[in-house]
Specification:
Elements lengths: L1 E5 L4 H12 L3 E6 L6 H9 L3 E4 L5 H8 L4 E4 L6 H6 L1 H22 L3 E7 L23 H20 L2 E7 L1 E3 L7 H11 L3 E5 L5 E2 L1 E3 H14 L4 E6 L5 E2 H11 L6 E5 L13 E2 L4 H4 L9 H12 L1
Length: 310
C-alpha cells in the first residue's frame, strides 16, 4: 500500500521508511530536513522512496504528501527533551499544532490508519515501575512529555470522530545506528573532545530503558498490523534498564577508551536537567501479547549507537 511518514528523514523515520519499502510498500516521506541525518537522506534516495520536502504545518505540503496514502506514520516532532523544556512555545508549535494540522488534512485524505510516535515521558515520575499503559494519572514533568500527551489526546478524538484506526507507540529511549540525538550521541561527542574526562549530567544514578532501533521498528509495524480497536496505545522498550554510569562504561568500551575520569553535574534531585525522569522502564506485556519481543538489551542498544558513531 502507499504509506506516508512525516519526519521520515530522521533517525526513526528513515529506518521505518526503508523497512516498509523492503516489505513492498510505496513510501512517501514528508520532511523539512531540518533534523535529517545525511546518511539517512542518501539511504532514502537509494531506496526509491518519494521524498517531499515540506512542513507538516503547511497545509499544501501535507496535502501533497498525504494524497492517496492509505496509512500514515506521524513521527515529525522536536524530540529533544531539554530543548522542548527551554522553549515551550516552539515545542507546542512543533509537537501539538503540527499534529493537529496533520489530522485536519487526514480528515480530507482519509487514510484507514494513523500511527503516532509518543514517548515514555508522558507518565512523568511513575510510582509503578515497570509502568503499564493503564497507569494514571499521567503527570509529565517535561514540556516534551506534555506535548506528546496532548498529541495522544488529539489522536484519540480523531479516531473516534473519523473511525480512522489510530495507534500510539509510547517509546522508551530509542538508539542504534544513525541516531542523531540522545545520551550516546552526547557522550561520544564529549569524549571526542576530551578522551580522558567525561562529564555526566545528573548524579549518575538515573536508571532507564534503552531500546534498539530494529526492535522499535518491528514493534511499530506489528502494532499497526495487528491492532483491531479504533484507538489503542502500546508501550515499547527493552526488558531491562541501566544507569547513566553503565551507559558511560558501554560508550567508553565501544570507543576503546580506558581509565576515563567521570565527573557529575546534577540538577535538582540528582536529575540530568529540569524535567529529566530519573527512573524509567516500561511494562511491555501488551505488545508481547501481539507476538513481539525485544531482541536487544539496553546495553546492546547503547553499544550499537556508540559503535556507529565511532
Amino acid at each position: 500500500m502507499k504509506v506516508l511518514i512525516t519526519g521520515g528523514a530522521g533517525f526513526i523515520g528513515s529506518h521505518l521508511a526503508l523497512e516498509l519499502r523492503k516489505q513492498g510498500h510505496e513510501v512517501v516521506v514528508l520532511d523539512n530536513l531540518s533534523a535529517a541525518h545525511p546518511d539517512a537522506v542518501k539511504l532514502l534516495d537509494q531506496g526509491k522512496v518519494q521524498l517531499v520536502r515540506g512542513d507538516v504545518l503547511v497545509r499544501e505540503d501535507a496535502l501533497r504528501a498525504a494524497r492517496g496514502c492509505e496509512a500514515v506514520f506521524h513521527l515529525a516532532a522536536n524530540p529533544d527533551v531539554r530543548a522542548n523544556s527551554a522553549s515551550p512555545g516552539e515545542a507546542f508549535r512543533l509537537n501539538v499544532q503540527a499534529t493537529h494540522a496533520l489530522l485536519e488534512v487526514l480528515r480530507e485524505t482519509r487514510p484507514h490508519s494513523v500511527v503516532f510516535a509518543s514517548t515514555s515521558t508522558i507518565y512523568g515520575e511513575a510510582s509503578v515501575v515497570p509502568t503499564p499503559e493503564d497507569y494514571g494519572p499521567c503527570e509529565p514533568i517535561s514540556t516534551y512529555g506534555a506535548t506528546k500527551l496532548a498529541g495522544e489526546a488529539l489522536l484519540c478524538a480523531h479516531a473516534h470522530a473519523t473511525k480512522q484506526r489510530c495507534t500510539v507507540l509510547r517509546l522508551a529511549n530509542i538508539t542504534g545506528p544513525r541516531s542523531t540525538h540522545g545520551v550516546a550521541c552526547d557522550l561520544v561527542a564529549k569524549l571526542k573532545r576530551d578522551p580522558r574526562n567525561l562529564e555526566l549530567l545528573g548524579d549518575g544514578k538515573q536508571r532507564k530503558s534503552y531500546a534498539h532501533i530494529d526492535d522499535a521498528i518491528a514493534a511499530m509495524l506489528l502494532a499497526w498490523q495487528r491492532q483491531s480497536a479504533v484507538f489503542d496505545a502500546y508501550n515499547m522498550g527493552s526488558e531491562d534498564a541501566i544507569s547513566v554510569v553503565d551507559v558511560a562504561d558501554e560508550v567508553c568500551a565501544a570507543l576503546g577508551l580506558q581509565g576515563v575520569r567521570y565527573t557529575f553535574k546534577p540538577s535538582e534531585g540528582g536529575r540530568g536537567w529540569p524535567g529529566d525522569v530519573k527512573v524509567m522502564q516500561l511494562a511491555i506485556g501488551k505488545l508481547k501479547a501481539l507476538g513481539w519481543a525485544p531482541r536487544h538489551t539496553s546495553r546492546d542498544a547503547i553499544r550499537a549507537a556508540a559503535e556507529s558513531l565511532r
